[in-house]
Amino acid sequence: MTPDEVLMELRSMDVNITRRTLLRYEKANLIPEPIRGGQGRGKGRTTDYPDSTASEAFAAYYLLNGNPSYRVETVASARKTILSWLENGVDSQDITDILRDKRPYIYGESVYMTWFIYKMIFFKKIRFDRGIFWVDYPSVGHLLNSDKDFENEFPVLSPDKNLNLIENDLGIVYLFENAIAIKHWTWKEKKWVTHWVERQT
């Protein structure tokens, strides 16, 4: 992918960054390094990013600019850890299991799961109005037996989350033993929508 193609994909998900920011992400190890080459004398140079670049830039953008926000070094470390698991044959469900098993320390490890979730959100093209959304990890350890009951269930929010005052979409991540789901509050429509990000049969 050319830099312009990466930026165009990001814009389709309401993330507007510049080429300079993309290069800064690259130098900070937040996205893959591209293959650079020449087109011949006087024809300029080429930059070819891997297909995963846009999704990783998307994750980096929200982790650096979200609430909570993380340091560049922390995001780069989370990316390196998750990608090393994937490169060693650990699939997405196994990654979920690994991170779930860290309870009760999940909040200390939340940057890893959040990076992973953002990457999946990008691939699923789940759009959150005004971009930034709050991520929590309710303690859900049981098998998911009733999809209908879960989809009709309203989340329990912390006292500081007043839906009447929130002017951006809000997402709550649920970790089941066989699925990852997001409860998505759409602030304009004032309703909850359930997205199944990952499911195992």
Task: Write structural notes for this entry.
This protein is α+β, with helices and mostly antiparallel strands and 201 residues long. The chain folds into 2 domains: 1-125; 126-201, no CATH class. The protein is built from 7 helices and 5 strands; from the N terminus they run H-H-E-E-H-H-H-H-H-E-E-E. Helix 3 packs across helix 6. It is globular. The relative contact order is 0.12. Residues 103-108 and 139-143 have low confidence and may be disordered.
SSE topology sketch:
Elements: H1 3-12, H2 19-27, E1 35-38, E2 45-48, H3 53-65, H4 72-87, H5 92-100, H6 110-124, H7 147-152, E3 170-175, E4 179-186, E5 191-199
Summarize model confidence as the mean pLDDT.
80
What is the H/E order? Answer: HHEEHHHHHEEE
Number of strands: 5
**Terminus-to-terminus distance:** 34 Å
Kindly report the spatial arrangement of strands forming the biggest sheet. 3-4-5
Helical amount: 25-40%
Q: Structural class, from helix and strand content?
A: alpha+beta
Strand content: 15-25%
- Taking pLDDT < 50 over at least 5 consecutive residues as the criterion, the unreliable ranges are 103-108, 139-143
The largest pleated sheet is described as: 3 strands, antiparallel
Task: Give the tally of structural domains.
Answer: 2
Count, helices: 7
Structural Rg: 18 Å
Shape: globular
